[in-house]
Amino acid sequence: MLDRERGPQQHLDGPFRCRKTCHPGGTATILLCFEAPEGAAPVQMQFEPGDLTNPNGDILPANRINVIPPQIQLEPGEATDVAVAVTIPDLTEPGEYHGRIVCTGTDQTSVVVVFEVAGAQT
Q1: What are the φ and ψ backbone dihedral angles of 30, each rounded to 5 degrees?
Q2: Closest Cα partner for 99 from 68, 34, 55?
Q3: Cis peptide before 15 (omega within 30 of 0)
């Protein structure tokens, strides 16, 4: 189960959007909360980011994305936060970039994330 920034609980629906516009040369973060249901088995998950792309085909490569922590283990009823942080290269074209964070382990799924990149600041 996934709770978006401590709001209403979501079941990996998404997309999950960064609340702030990102700027080239900066870092932006989406905070997600994962919770293992009461009475269920322990949950293990590993996170692997993919490239983020915009409608023009511009790419923010996966090596610019960090998932912290990169893996979790939750006991029934336990919850933890996971941050998806993207470092925006200086020459990134503006636009809305979206992609998937693949979640493997007890369950196999993915989370869609969206980051809006502004034009370069002068």
Answers
A1: -110, 130
A2: 55
A3: yes
H-assigned helices in 12-96: none
Token pair 């980011």 in the structure block, residue? 49
Output the pTM of the full model. Answer: 0.83
State whether the Cα torsion 94-17-109-77 is positive or negative.
Answer: positive
Number of Cβ atoms within 10 Å of the Cβ of 38:
8
Up-side HSE of residue 94: CA atoms within 13 Å toward CB?
6
Q: What pLDDT, in 10s, does the model give residues 72-104?
A: 999 999 999 999 999 999 999 999 999 999 998
Going along the chain, which residue ranges are E strands? 2-4, 9-10, 16-17, 27-35, 43-49, 52-53, 59-60, 65-68, 71-74, 79-87, 95-105, 109-117
